[in-house]
Every structure is written in C-alpha cells, then in structure tokens.
Design brief:
The chain is of the alpha+beta class. It has one domain: RutC-like (60s Ribosomal Protein L30, Chain: A). 23% of the residues lie in helices and 30% in strands. It contains two helices and six strands. The strands form two sheets. Strands 3-6-4-5 form a four-stranded mixed beta sheet. The chain has a two-stranded antiparallel ribbon with strand order 1-2. Helix 2 (89-100) links the parallel strand 4 and strand 5 (106-111). 27% of the residues are buried.
Length: 129
C-alpha cells in the first residue's frame, strides 16, 4: 500500500500563493522519511557561486536522499527552505517550481543565517510512502 497525499486548503483561511499546499494530509503511510537540511555542496566539496546553481544542487542532494529510500519528489509532504538572503526569494520559488512541477507539498521558507556563509540555501523535508 502506498501513502495517499491530499492537499488541503481551509476555505476560511488565505489561499496558498506560489505552488504549495496549506496542509497535506497523509493517509495509509507505511514509512516516513525525515530528510536533514540538504546543502548546496557537491559530492567533491564544491559550492557553486550563483543562488540558482546552489538551489538546484540542494534539490539534487534532496532527491538523492529520496532515491536512497526508494522515494521520489511525489512523496514529499513538507519542505522547509532556509534562505540566507530575502533577495533570493523569487529565484528560490522559480527553481522550486521547476523541480516540483505540479507537486505541491506543505511549504515553509525562512530567511535566516545559515551554518556556512558560502551557502545561500538549505532544504529539509519530510516524505511519506
């Protein structure tokens, strides 16, 4: 049996803006996967300079963790993205929407200091199968 994910949006709350769900209900989940913050570092240790390249790499690293668990982006229930600079919010949304396409997990974006000053983004997630 595979988990059934249902996006919810309460009629008496604001609608989501930008390709995410206000809430995601998980029915019949057999497994939950909690993915630690994935950083924009390549396997060899390189960190790209541009925000877009860092965001794509962080998503690639997150997808690698999903693959290791036999899951895909479609299993994502909740994504939390940490940005070092609010100026990257629009680019973050564009990369996220390109990666996730029509899939809309619950989402939070936080502007904060990140562990390594070279990193512009970190992404953590919860997936269900």
């Amino acid at each position: 049996m595979t988990a059934r994910l249902t996006a919810l949006s309460a009629p008496d709350a604001p609608s989501p803006q930008g390709g995410y769900a206000q809430a995601v209900q998980v029915d019949a989940a057999i497994r939950l996967l909690f993915i630690s913050g994935q950083i924009p570092v390549a396997r060899g240790g390189a960190v790209p300079d541009s925000f877009e390249a860092q965001a794509e790499l962080a998503w690639e690293n997150l997808q690698a963790q999903l693959r290791a668990a036999g899951m895909t982006l479609a299993n994502l229930v909740k994504v939390t993205t940490f940005l070092a600079d609010r100026a990257d919010a629009a680019a973050n949304r564009a990369v996220r929407q390109r990666v996730l396409r029509a899939h809309a997990p619950a989402l939070t974006v936080i502007i904060t200091g990140i562990f390594d000053t070279a990193w512009k983004i970190e992404i953590e997630a919860i997936a269900a199968a």
